Description:
Elements: H1 2-14, H2 16-22, E1 31-36, H3 38-41, H4 45-56, E2 63-68, E3 76-77, E4 80-81, H5 82-89, E5 97-101, H6 114-134, E6 139-144, H7 161-179, E7 182-185, H8 188-200, H9 202-205, H10 217-230, E8 236-243, E9 248-253, E10 255-262, E11 266-272, H11 284-291, H12 295-299, E12 301-307, E13 313-318, E14 321-327, H13 328-333, E15 335-336, H14 343-371, H15 381-402, E16 407-415
Parallel strand pairs: 1-2, 1-5, 5-6, 6-7, 8-12
Antiparallel strand pairs: 3-4, 8-9, 10-11, 11-16, 12-15, 13-14, 13-16
Helix pairs in contact: 4-10, 4-14, 6-7, 10-11, 14-15
Amino acid sequence: xxxxxxxxxxxxxxxxxxxxxxxxxxxxxxxxxxxxxxxxxxxxxxxxxxxxxxxxxxxxxxxxxxxxxxxxxxxxxxxxxxxxxxxxxxxxxxxxxxxxxxxxxxxxxxxxxxxxxxxxxxxxxxxxxxxxxxxxxxxxxxxxxxxxxxxxxxxxxxxxxxxxxxxxxxxxxxxxxxxxxxxxxxxxxxxxxxxxxxxxxxxxxxxxxxxxxxxxxxxxxxxxxxxxxxxxxxxxxxxxxxxxxxxxxxxxxxxxxxxxxxxxxxxxxxxxxxxxxxxxxxxxxxxxxxxxxxxxxxxxxxxxxxxxxxxxxxxxxxxxxxxxxxxxxxxxxxxxxxxxxxxxxxxxxxxxxxxxxxxxxxxxxxxxxxxxxxxxxxxxxxxxxxxxxxxxxxxxxxxxxxxxxxxxxxxxxxxxxx
Length: 418
């Protein structure tokens, strides 16, 4: 009886990673539209989410469309009134998932005003209703507005503008609860990281949201993390444990390990089912936000654990590339490969490059041809639109091909102390 319980427990433990993968919000066949103002229009938190999804779930075909427009409010903006924006830039794509982040411009950068707030709440309710009427089965994620940076610089007035956005965010959260919709808070967790970053390096912390409104890449990485966590994104990329003394693989999650050989050096092959998040670890601002947030622990764990080693230290090579030298105690505790430069990280970076390319093509197609020339009768306009659609599709095919798992050869070679 005791042995049977142990076998069941071990099976559940081995499948824990699969359970986490299955609970992710986005499913095969989903089409996601990101809707919002200039912060969404930056195409940074959105492309981070896209690349994370593709590299973590390369077997799922999920489309992403980025429909942010600078200056937008719940009433619309430079791209037209809200109903035009919603029908042309959201509903027309027949999405299964839509995210909405609006509020930064709606508060008008002043202290809380009840009339302004009423315009926001009334407009938001109408916007949600238009989407649900047109797309009854769409899954909406309402995003509580990202922060105005009143942390690294003094507020411009008593209480600060972010206090207004927090009130807007509470309304968004309440609306989502009332309508049975999903929500994500991209404000309070980012503010917490800003506070930690300011304590660690005040000057560098100001570069997370350089103009106090529009985050740089590091700030968008924090925002992407909160949306992904709201969508139950898995923390684990892969996990491998090897007992070198016994010459056996103890466990392998989200990967397949083979050809294990133990002499003085330990070598094996590994075929992973996912890739780590591509992070520019040389960027000092990104490095700062990684230290001041739970991004790595909550979303980017690629664990290699090797016990039973005899030499004081070991050089790790993957596909012949030197990754690093580690004390045997560190390897026994486990090394997170996602925080290191590896062939897997390089592959993920190549995927992200295609993410950016195909989104840039879509942006040109949408903003510079479809919308900019919508009132012009031009023979070649449809030809150009179709050609750009084909180019976008080709880049997406290359993006998905770049995310396909490949096998890697690992080598742990003993190193004498210097």
